[in-house]
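Saturday, quiet lab. Running sequence design on the structure tokens for the scaffold JK sent over.
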């Protein structure tokens, strides 16, 4: 565990260096915030204090909830099982469409009213029957030390870990972070530098570098999500370029989720995403060789379900977050043709369904 960490302690942060002009530069993410004493980075939860980098959100959360794992979304990682979800505050991107803006854009530390040390979280996952714990709601990259310590505590008691992240992380930090994650859903927000710059306040290439790193250098199970926003990142040409890049650089077996936007935060002048846009994106992905493409945030049983790339059989039927027909054998292969399906599967699916159960950690530990 991070040295001297207690629920109300400000802990030392890793990944920074000192500049010649006296400032310190954060190396945690590509933003490279340069700070003088008393300043905080754009993420707000990391800042300079006592002449070093500090993390202010260790052991503190904006809330806890038991979710279906498919909500992360992960369709090839322990289907049907419950996951204990939690986040903190702040973010290292500035997405105008953020749908968790009350947490990710928070500058009020009293938002973090729940206290939870890593061992508390691991015990809570155990006692509530969760098979995994998800770092989500805001990006876990910015609370790396807390996430890594929690992952270690979870692994000691057989609980797996899930990172829901934008993948905006520095090269050195990337290695430490993902070695502790059993699964990750990375939000590939678009496939244009324009979008990342103008809409998210970041850059595309570091995210692509993270995806290649996860796929080629870790054992972390990887899935991708793209929220399609009308007129911004939903053109057939952009989806075509994105899915071709995924197949060429990550391979055909990385699942892709195309999900529907609804107006929120600072992007309220765009309409909700039509179902046809998601269905078209899925079709483009399949045509370009993506073997597992999904639609989300819309009612589309065919687009939500998993189909065998070998024989076309229905493998995992999904109605919302509920699992129906199960066509995998005990080894994760298609019962009809024997094609092995990539992912982390058990002989039978879980049956948590579509429930969402907010909890107070004191009640779970």
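Result came back. Writing it out in full:
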């Amino acid at each position: 565990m991070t040295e001297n960490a207690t629920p109300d302690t400000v802990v030392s942060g890793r990944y920074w260096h000192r500049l010649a002009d006296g400032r310190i530069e954060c190396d945690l993410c590509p933003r490279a915030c340069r700070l003088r004493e008393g300043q905080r980075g754009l993420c707000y939860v990391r800042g300079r204090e006592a002449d070093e980098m500090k993390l202010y959100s260790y052991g503190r959360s904006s809330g806890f909830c038991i979710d279906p794992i498919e909500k992360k979304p992960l369709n090839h990682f322990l289907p049907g099982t419950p996951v204990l979800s939690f986040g903190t505050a702040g973010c290292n991107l500035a997405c105008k469409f953020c749908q968790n803006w009350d947490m990710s854009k928070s500058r009020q530390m009293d938002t973090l009213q729940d206290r939870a040390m890593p061992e508390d979280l691991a015990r809570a996952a155990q006692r509530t029957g969760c098979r995994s714990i998800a770092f989500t709601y805001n990006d876990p990259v910015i609370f790396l030390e807390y996430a890594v310590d929690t992952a270690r505590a979870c692994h000691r008691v057989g609980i797996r870990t899930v990172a829901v992240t934008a993948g905006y992380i520095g090269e050195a930090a990337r290695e430490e972070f993902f070695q502790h994650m059993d699964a990750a859903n990375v939000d590939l927000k678009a496939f244009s530098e324009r979008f990342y710059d103008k809409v998210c306040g970041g850059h595309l290439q570091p995210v692509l570098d993270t995806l290649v790193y996860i796929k080629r250098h870790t054992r972390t199970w990887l899935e991708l999500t793209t929220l399609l926003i009308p007129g911004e990142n939903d053109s057939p040409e952009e989806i075509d370029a994105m899915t071709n890049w995924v197949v060429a650089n990550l391979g055909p077996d990385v699942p892709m989720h195309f999900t529907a936007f609804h107006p929120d935060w600072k992007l309220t002048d765009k309409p909700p995403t039509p179902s046809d846009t998601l269905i078209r994106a899925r079709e483009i992905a399949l045509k370009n060789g993506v073997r597992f493409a999904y639609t989300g945030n819309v009612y589309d049983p065919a687009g939500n379900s998993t189909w065998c790339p070998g024989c076309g059989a229905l493998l995992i039927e999904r109605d919302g977050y509920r699992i129906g027909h199960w066509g995998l054998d005990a080894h994760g292969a298609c019962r009809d043709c024997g094609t092995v399906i990539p992912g982390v599967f058990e002989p039978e699916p879980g049956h948590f369904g579509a429930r969402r159960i907010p909890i107070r950690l004191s009640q779970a530990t």
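Notes for JK: The first strand starts at residue 11 and ends at 12. The mean pLDDT is 92. Ask whether to fix the surface positions before the next round.
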